[in-house]
Amino acid sequence: MQSELLTTEELSARIKYDVRTIRERLKDSVLLEGVHYIRPFGGRKILFVWDQIAEDMGKSSAASRAAIPMANGGVLHG
Fold this sequence. Notes:
Elements: E1 5-6, H1 8-15, H2 19-26, E2 37-38, E3 47-49, H3 50-65, E4 67-69, E5 75-77
């Protein structure tokens, strides 16, 4: 099965984040090389793996809904 590969600009349009935010804040902290993006042929160009990004966005969103913040800074998972 072949995943859809997106440029930074295409990913930006899909997830409604600025291109600069993807490059500076998300890449390498949230989006991991080899999982969420690749560098084809060892070059500088980055292509994002849409299926993996969409799956992880859904997981993260679902996980945060089940958590109740506590006064001491902790989280109650219910």
